[in-house]
């Protein structure tokens, strides 16, 4: 399964066992290693998955119809308006309503938001199909 993947066979094995409900300690015992080793391997695997997802988003952003830059100190509730305005200029219909858009931004960019304030710049790509990609 790891062929042509950013994950090793061991990382996949550990993630599969974790997803089945096994603890790191249980996995360590069954694989004859330490819990610390399992923890480190799992952390690396999850980091590789995050990097792969980010790479896909960057590639998608390269072909986006538009990029909306949301500056630090912007109120989160103002973000949908900025996105809809840019999309409207390009005659693109955004596939999310305002609450869904805010929820998605809040979830994906949680470390860039505090309360309703954007605490570091966010780039949001708009695709020709009306999807958004958060970078």
Keywords:
single chain, 135 residues, alpha+beta, 2 domains, three-stranded antiparallel beta sheet, two-stranded antiparallel ribbon, 51% helix, elongated
Q: Can you tell me about this structure?
A:
It is a single chain. By secondary structure, the protein is an alpha+beta fold. It folds into two domains: 9-60; 64-134, no CATH class. The protein is built from five helices and five strands; from the N terminus they run αααβααββββ. The strands form two sheets. A three-stranded antiparallel sheet has the order 1-4-5, with helices on both faces. A two-stranded antiparallel sheet has the order 2-3. β2 and β3 (117-118) form a beta hairpin. α1 (9-19) packs across α3 (35-62) and α2 (24-31) crosses α3. The radius of gyration is 19 Å and the shape is elongated. The mean pLDDT is 93.
Order of helices and strands: HHHEHHEEEE
Strand content: 5-15%
Query: How many E-type strands?
Result: 5
Helix content range: 40-55%
Strand order of the largest sheet: 1-4-5
General shape: elongated
What structural class should be given to the helix and strand makeup? alpha+beta
Total number of domains: 2
Detail the poorly predicted runs.
none
Whole-angstrom Rg: 19 Å
Mean pLDDT: 93
Largest sheet: 3 strands, antiparallel
- Give the end-to-end Cα distance, rounded to a whole number of Å: 28 Å
In brief:
The chain has 135 residues and is an alpha+beta fold. The chain has helices at 9-19, 24-31, 35-62, 79-89, 98-108; strands spanning 66-70, 113-114, 117-118, 122-126, 132-134.
């Amino acid at each position: 399964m790891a062929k042509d993947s950013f994950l090793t066979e061991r990382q996949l094995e550990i993630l599969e066992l974790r997803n089945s409900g096994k603890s790191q300690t249980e996995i360590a015992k069954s694989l004859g290693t330490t819990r610390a080793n399992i923890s480190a391997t799992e952390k690396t695997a999850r980091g590789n998955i995050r990097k792969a997802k980010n790479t896909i988003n960057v590639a998608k952003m390269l072909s986006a119809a538009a990029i909306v830059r949301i500056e630090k100190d912007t109120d989160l509730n103002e973000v949908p308006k900025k996105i809809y305005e840019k999309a409207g200029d390009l005659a693109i219909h955004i596939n999310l309503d305002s609450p869904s858009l805010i929820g998605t931004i809040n979830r994906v960019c949680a470390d860039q938001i505090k309360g309703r304030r954007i605490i570091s710049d966010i780039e949001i790509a708009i695709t020709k199909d009306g999807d958004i990609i958060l970078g």
